[in-house]
Model the fold of this input.
Amino acid sequence: MHRNPFNFGISRRTLIKVAGASAAVAAAGLPGRLFAADPLKVAAIYTVPVEQQWVSRIHKAANAAKERGDIEYVYSENTANNDYERVMREYCEAGHKLILGEVFGVEDAARAVAKDYPDVAFLMGSSFKPDAAVPNFSVFDNYIQDASYLSGLVAGAMTKSKNIGMVGGYPIPEVNRLMNAFMAGVKEVAPDTKFQIAFIGSWFDPPKAKETAFAQIDGGADLLYAERFGVSDAAKEKKVLAIGNVIDTQADYPETVVASALWHFEPTLDKAIAEVKAGAFKADDYGVYSFMKNGGCSLAPLGTFDAKVPDDVKAKIAEKEKAIKDGSFTVEINDAEPKSS
Done:
């Protein structure tokens, strides 16, 4: 898939700075166990700006771990897919022991790099599963279907036209599952709701997302699912409502964004840091650490819309949240591409 054009930004300066690590240290590899007090050298490679929703949550968690003294953290942003492998190798050669990133468009190249650096741990956003043949390569994704479902309950209560517009980046599993969970929540409250679904073919193109949202509003949508930046801007201009994804933007759109499904990457990253330090990191699927029961996602506070969401719906949300956390209710993980209805 096509990503943003290559632009090193601060990453070139960062790489020059870290490249001075001695060859002996770089060649030594990860010791079987690190002392808990030793900061782990972590590098992240992002294909979009760190302001982008999905990446911003990884960046936030990494900075929190850095502030705790658990890790040293450097990163590259706006890295083009055709340059991703080279940047991965440079970070490995510079002595970093945990590499973070998202390899949706560079799966084969990323796994090939991991094979070449068996003493480096890789934790990568991916639509695929871990492979025992690459034991130092683990995958994650934002499995926040629990929170997306709850945001759908809110949306079902707030739409009057029973027509909801949904704008996504690409129809890949990490997007599809959130849209499907949201739609399931909507239908539980307002089963006759229709959905207009569109994908803009980009992870970061706010103008295109905005124009797509305008078209959906023209098509009768009075509420928008803002999977991408730009959608809430359209909603604000046209005075319709929006539901956020991954981050809470209500402070920027206090009369527009009703609720948001939040992703918390901290449980995922903290687990990986602990595994590397214990010498126990292995090929695994870290997706479960995004589940609500593990603290990986939540429904943002309703804030400015608290008094506008019906009490019976708020009670239903509380009931479902409790059931999700205690395991008595499971939100379906549906990775199929959603269709307009």
Q: What stands out?
A: Residues 60 and 102 are 15 Å apart (CA to CA). Residues 173-189 form the longest helix (17 residues). The domain at 145-263+295-326 is CATH 3.40.50.2300 (Rossmann fold).
